[in-house]
Amino acid sequence: MLQDLRFALRTLARTPGFTAMAVLILALGIGPTTAIYSVVEGVLLRPLPYRDPERLVRIAWSPKKYEGRVFATPSLGEVRAWIAESHSFEEMSPYWGSNPVLTGLGDASRITVMTVKSNLFSMLGVQPVLGRAFTADEDRQGGARAVVLSHRFWVTRFGHDPQVLGRSLVLDGTSMEIVGVMPAGFGFPVLPAGFRSDGTDVWSSLSSSQEPFSPDDRGSVEVVARLRDGLSIGQAKADVDIVEQRWSQSTGQQADRVTAITTLEDFAVGEVRPALLLALSAVGLVLLIACANAANLLLARAESRRREMAIRAALGAGRLRILRQVLTESVLLALAGAAVGVLLATWGLPLLVSLAGKSLPRLQDVDINLGVLATTVAAALVTGVIVGLVPAVKSLLASSSVALKEGGAGVGTADARVGGAFVIAQVALTLVLLIGASLLGRSFKNLMTLKPGFEPAQVLVAQVDLPETRYGSSARKLAFAQAVIERIRALPGVSAVALSTGTPLAVGAIGSISIPGKPVQPEAPWASFTAVTPEFFSTLGIPLRHGRLFAESDGASAHPIIVNEALVRTFFPDQPPLGQQVGFFGSRTGTIIGVVGDTRELSLAAEPPPVVYEPLAADAQGYLKIIVRTAGDPGTLAAPLRAALRALDPGLPINALQSMPEMMAESLATERFYAAVVAIFAALALLMAAAGVYALMGYTVVRRTRELGVRIALGAEARQVLTQVIGRGALLALVGILLGLGGALAATRVLKHVLFQIAPTDPATFVGVSVALTVVAVLASYLPARRATRVDPMIALRSE
Predict the structure, then answer these.
(1) What average pLDDT does the segment 242-267 reach?
(2) For position 346, what pLDDT does the model report?
């Protein structure tokens, strides 16, 4: 084996051009595969960093009529009932998040805090590296207020100070004792796709916060639990459903509630699993195309080494030795390609992560680690064997006494057929990728050109959360809102300003709608609810269709509301909507005074849901969006807006500040990521397919030099030679396209749920891509064909 290895290295070194080309082709296949596999391994395959993560589940509930489609989180009262009466879990732990203002460590800033039960860390199987976790006494109201720091927060705010234990952390004006520090890399909770954050800064004990929800409140408490060993999710669901039904009846809640239990892993990555596997399949096609291209190169090289192999056989080399030698060379090429591919993946992986944005969870876990490298090496070994198998068989056939007598002229029919088969496979696989990329690209274009129902240009949106300690009453919230409007309206360059609890693409609240006097519509979509100031619609450019907009005099007593056209279509399709009553939030009823145009609420790809707008005075909330329309670039107003808010309340940080175009771009992050990734793979595939056609035609011309010389000597015109060579390249391309069309018809059906306003079998896309690929194949055949027309018949004949 060592002798074979040394000989293979010397042989490849004697042909640097061939070696470099083969390594580059394999690197272009292995590099993207490594990068995408790194993402798949970090997001999908790597277990969550907890003890027995497959038994950790998240529990929520759904209205029975929306089971599997709409999920809500329980109240603390529900969770207490689940803990006390269910028998399917070893432990259960509620938690909820908040963003209190941190003071005493530099400028006031908001941090991410999770209030958790004392059993959370032991249930996850992770303990602090410094200090301790919470105790049962710290679960009780009135107990000592305690916090545990994340490792990142400890490093950035306290500089690794081991004396941090016992110090105080002031959150929203309340002092809490630091009792522990979690290990580096630990994070909780697990967030699904679309929810990205810098992670939790601090975990606080239940005693650190008043219970925010009464037992009959639906609330927003998350629940994580550990299944008992041997129990399935289905058994646990049946158990908790019984408890939930009893609790609903005892508290007067709706009785048609069912629980929804999913593993933490499915909760985090369930939505992105199909798309990531699709991306891995796409890059797998690129690797197959690279294999076919490299196999064609090796096949051509095997033809040129026929006499060499015959001499080796004559000198005593057995068939196994020749087979082993050729496979050693191909495996060496694959390993070299893998080395270059890993370098390409190292460069490209940060680009993939930046393209993904919020569209993928757990991106902090994505890297090229030892496991990824081991998989890449294994893939390279398999690739080397696959690539070298046909050339190795060709070398065995060449090791005969007949090859010693041949001058190497001509190219055998079998060689031509095998080389042509590789090209056909490349073209077919490339067509599948190109059609998929074209469909995703056109879908993304449709989203980009979609009218969202509002005017996003020159709009800046800031978000603030008013602490209850200083803004506990509605009057204080409304006074703050009015002060903000007056202060920001006076800034240079401001055209309009409004406040609301939500905006398009960032809804305030969702819930069900009822129409007094009418039966409930079981299949009616849930609605979005937003409290706004009067200038909300003009600031965002949402058009009024009927009725009127809010006035300053509209307050809570009259309960006026404005609805969108989607709500009218759903609930009042044959009635004039103005003056109609709409029930929402359980006991609240509003009277419609106006109808505005539809806006994209959840995302640009989602159809507009019914929307109810009410005056901010009727529903003053602590979370507020400050919407500013500017006369120029909204980015130039960011600093003045921050300064204005700081002047109003120095202790109130801005949670988020971005322009509406940035929010729209964020909404398209998922579609942009997959369209860009598949487009890159399709471009690589097209490049390699064109190179494959060019290489095969060039090799054919070289091997047929004598034949072409004879043809020209006998009077064949250049046009005839040109047509013959190009015709063969076009024929191979057409056969590949026909096979690829069948594969594309089957493969693109999986894109059905990610395409927007375009069918997965769109005829224009299929025809356009097929024609384009044919043109590329003809152009790739043209240069070798021109070379064939310039063969000097005398030189061609003398060479023999």
Answers:
(1) 79
(2) 92
**pLDDT, tens only, 494-550:** 999 999 999 998 887 777 888 887 877 666 778 889 999 999 999 999 999 999 999
Q: Can you list the pairs that 240-249 forms with residues at least 24 positions away whose Cβ atoms lie under 8 Å?
A: 240/59, 240/82, 240/86, 240/88, 243/81, 243/82, 243/85, 243/86, 244/61, 244/78, 244/81, 244/82, 246/81, 246/85, 247/77, 247/78, 247/81
With cut-offs at 50, 70 and 90, classify the pLDDT of residue 486: very high
Q: In sequence order, which ranges of 305-365 are alpha helices (DSSP H)?
A: 306-314, 319-356
Confirm whether 505 is domain-assigned.
Answer: yes
For 162, other C-beta atoms within 10 Å of its C-beta total: 10
Region class of 154: left (phi > 0), else alpha (psi between -120 and 50), else beta: alpha
Q: Which two tokens stand for residue 257?
A: 């509630």
Q: List, in order, residues 6 or more apart from 237 with CB less than 8 Å away.
A: 259, 260, 261
Q: DSSP assignment of 186-222, as one string?
A: ---S---TT---S---EEEEGGGS---S-TT-----E
Q: Which residues neighbour 610 within 8 Å (Cβ) at sequence distance 6 or greater?
A: 513, 524, 525, 527, 528, 563, 564, 566, 567, 570, 571
Instruction: Give the end of a domain, one of 244, 267, 290.
Output: 267
Convert the pLDDT of each residue in 667-676 to its tens digit: 887 788 888 8
Domain boundary among 236, 267, 298: 267
My answer on whether 240 and 182 are in the same domain is: yes
29 part of a folded domain = yes
What are the backbone angles phi and psi of residue 366, rounded to the nearest 5°? -85, 120
Q: 10 Å Cβ neighbour count for 107?
A: 10
Question: Which SS3 state, helix, strand or coil, does residue 56 take?
Answer: strand
In the beta sheet, which residues pair with residue 629? 459, 496
Residues 261 and 276 in one domain: no
Contact present, 787 and 698 (Cβ < 8 Å):
yes
CA 465 to CA 545: how far, in whole Å?
A: 32
Q: How far is CA 728 from CA 149, 363, 694, 721, 778, in A?
A: 69, 47, 11, 11, 9
- The reported pTM is 0.76
Q: What are phi and psi of 760, to 5 degrees?
A: -65, -15
Q: Does 528 lie in the same domain as 626?
A: yes
CA 246 to mean position of chain CA atoms: 40
740 occurs within a structural domain: yes
Yes or no: say if 115 and 221 are a contact pair by the CB < 8 Å rule: no
User: Does 656 fall in a domain?
Assistant: no
Count CB atoms within 10 A of the CB of residue 449. 8
Tell me which residue of 620, 41, 94, 69 sits closest to 276, measured CA to CA.
41
pLDDT at residue 407, rounded to an integer: 45
What is the rounded end-to-end Cα distance, in angstroms, of the chain?
A: 38
Q: Give residue 418's domain range.
A: 2-43+271-447+670-798
Report the distance separating Cα 625 and Cα 497, nearest Å.
Answer: 10
Q: CA 73, CA 514: separation in Å to the nearest integer? A: 21
Instruction: State the Cα–Cα distance between residues 362 and 268, nearest whole angstrom.
Output: 8
Domain identity same for 618 and 702: no
Residues 439 and 404 in one domain: yes
- Rounded to an integer, the average pLDDT of 601-609 is 85
Beta-carbon contacts of residue 163 (< 8 Å; ≥ 6 apart): none
Specify whether 598 is located in the same domain as 720.
Answer: no
Distance of CA 303 to the CA centre of its chain: 46
Report which residue type is found at 525: P
- Report which DSSP code applies to 52: S
CB atoms within 10 A of CB 523: 7
Say how many domains are in the chain.
3
Model confidence at 409, pLDDT cuts 50, 70, 90, reads very low
User: Buried b / exposed e across 652-672, counting CB within 10 Å, b at 16+?
Assistant: bbbeebbbbeebbbbbbbbbb
Task: Report whether the peptide linkage leading into residue 189 is cis, meaning its omega lies within 30 degrees of zero.
Answer: yes
User: 127 near 133, Cβ under 8 Å?
Assistant: yes
Give yes or no: residues 415 and 318 share one domain.
yes
Least confident piece of the model among 385-389, 485-489, 768-772: 385-389
